[in-house]
Amino acid sequence: MGKEKLHINIVVIGHVDSGKSTTTGHLIYKCGGIDKRTIEKFEKEAAEMGKGSFKYAWVLDKLKAERERGITIDISLWKFETSKYYVTIIDAPGHRDFIKNMITGTSQADCAVLIVAAGVGEFEAGISKNGQTREHALLAYTLGVKQLIVGVNKMDSTEPNYSQKRYEEIVKEVSTYIKKIGYNPDTVAFVPISGWNGDNMLEPSPNMTWFKGWKINRKDGSSSGTTLLEALDAIQPPTRPTDKPLRLPLQDVYKIGGIGTVPVGRVETGVLKPGMVVTFAPVNVTTEVKSVEMHHEALSEALPGDNVGFNVKNVSVKDIRRGNVAGDSRNDPPQEAAGFTSQVIILNHPGQISAGYAPVLDCHTAHIACKFAELKEKIDRRSGKKLEDNPKSLKSGDAAIVDMIPGKPMCVESFSEYPPLGDTTVCCLWERGWGRTLPGLLTGNKLVAGKSRVSAVLCYCFSSLSAMGRPAVRLAAVHRPCQGRI
């Protein structure tokens, strides 16, 4: 893949059966993200299985199944091209565990595409308190995805078909909700579409002549268009932190015959180049990078936002794993964190949380149980003002500053230094939540603390002030078992 166009990542979110897979499959197919031979193969299989008409969602599910079985690790299957960008789908939608997979994937997205179904009863099910429309939108915002596109899907199944009134009702209700969680509806493109028939996907639909197009207004100017593809081209180019030291969380590690060990992941900060000596934390493995590839093309350098595979010397697949973080061994290499301090807000938790509570924490691609070692203080969830020192327990609605200790070695960073590695998500059975670790290091027993934003935690467990559309500046720290480093 050439470097003449910018590379962006999008995540497609929405309630189950809203048409996420169909819409995504349509985009990938029509925009050349699936080669012709693969399409012909799957179309033939679809016909043999009694699926006479070609279904985009079925093809997408077939591609995902083949990828999960290890037949291919070609993430270009999830890539397509617009006139302005190379677009990568972070995680193909429609899977039963999409929320779980989305937690780490969404924080890597430059834009979220929220699909809502316009069919009778379908929109209401998704936007209800138990629906995933609200949950996914709040998840995207709290994980830092500040650009949003809304596709009002299944316009061909409204009553009557392609109903302008139904579309306007949905736009009004979704606008009200996303405004509450922090998005500005004036910056969000709403597009009435049919992911199945292709209405307003790549070309204006003759079935919705009443739709005069979408328009978004930002501080730096306005954009307008009619189709979903045009809305993707209107995404603001992301700023990439190339000036920071390298941080690349591993998503997978493969052993490829004739090549060797190939870690795969997304560059979050810094630059990765062949010949660079990298260190993997927390396992403390150091090696040289032999080559770097993206979409089967060798790169002279990989920049933030690039999803790459890189071949390393003399390292076994047993030495490194998903959740490890690669960094430049000569420039602030990543290290193990012994613990960290974070702000959490409890939402809809059925009981009380006390010190010793040990949920599973997701930070970048790591998935490790962490203990609430100490409940340091209870705070006002809006102002951040301290209300109580060392509370005995926390309940739904409470906000607090908590010391957390991972049960296994893991690498996290201060949010102010490396935002993608300071985003943490707490998951435990019925609860899920988000928080951010903040700056400061522990050298020996000395804590060096700082300040930064905390953004949050949501779903059934935690949320932060920024989830309410408010800025949040809080104390926090990363504790490290390191030697003389501050």
Automatic annotation (TrEMBL):
<dbReference type="InterPro" id="IPR054696">
    <property type="entry name" value="GTP-eEF1A_C"/>
</dbReference>
<dbReference type="GO" id="GO:0005525">
    <property type="term" value="F:GTP binding"/>
</dbReference>
<comment type="similarity">
    <text>Belongs to the TRAFAC class translation factor GTPase superfamily. Classic translation factor GTPase family. EF-Tu/EF-1A subfamily.</text>
</comment>
<dbReference type="InterPro" id="IPR004161">
    <property type="entry name" value="EFTu-like_2"/>
</dbReference>
<keyword id="KW-0597">Phosphoprotein</keyword>
<keyword id="KW-0547">Nucleotide-binding</keyword>
<dbReference type="InterPro" id="IPR027417">
    <property type="entry name" value="P-loop_NTPase"/>
</dbReference>
<keyword id="KW-0488">Methylation</keyword>
<dbReference type="InterPro" id="IPR009000">
    <property type="entry name" value="Transl_B-barrel_sf"/>
</dbReference>
<dbReference type="GO" id="GO:0003746">
    <property type="term" value="F:translation elongation factor activity"/>
</dbReference>
<protein>
    <recommendedName>
        <fullName>Elongation factor 1-alpha</fullName>
    </recommendedName>
</protein>
<dbReference type="Pfam" id="PF03144">
    <property type="entry name" value="GTP_EFTU_D2"/>
</dbReference>
<dbReference type="InterPro" id="IPR050100">
    <property type="entry name" value="TRAFAC_GTPase_members"/>
</dbReference>
<dbReference type="InterPro" id="IPR004539">
    <property type="entry name" value="Transl_elong_EF1A_euk/arc"/>
</dbReference>
<dbReference type="InterPro" id="IPR031157">
    <property type="entry name" value="G_TR_CS"/>
</dbReference>
<feature type="domain" description="Tr-type G">
    <location>
        <begin position="5"/>
        <end position="242"/>
    </location>
</feature>
<dbReference type="GO" id="GO:0003924">
    <property type="term" value="F:GTPase activity"/>
</dbReference>
<keyword id="KW-0342">GTP-binding</keyword>
<dbReference type="Pfam" id="PF00009">
    <property type="entry name" value="GTP_EFTU"/>
</dbReference>
<dbReference type="InterPro" id="IPR000795">
    <property type="entry name" value="T_Tr_GTP-bd_dom"/>
</dbReference>
<keyword id="KW-0251">Elongation factor</keyword>
<dbReference type="InterPro" id="IPR009001">
    <property type="entry name" value="Transl_elong_EF1A/Init_IF2_C"/>
</dbReference>
<dbReference type="Pfam" id="PF22594">
    <property type="entry name" value="GTP-eEF1A_C"/>
</dbReference>
<comment type="function">
    <text>This protein promotes the GTP-dependent binding of aminoacyl-tRNA to the A-site of ribosomes during protein biosynthesis.</text>
</comment>
<keyword id="KW-0648">Protein biosynthesis</keyword>
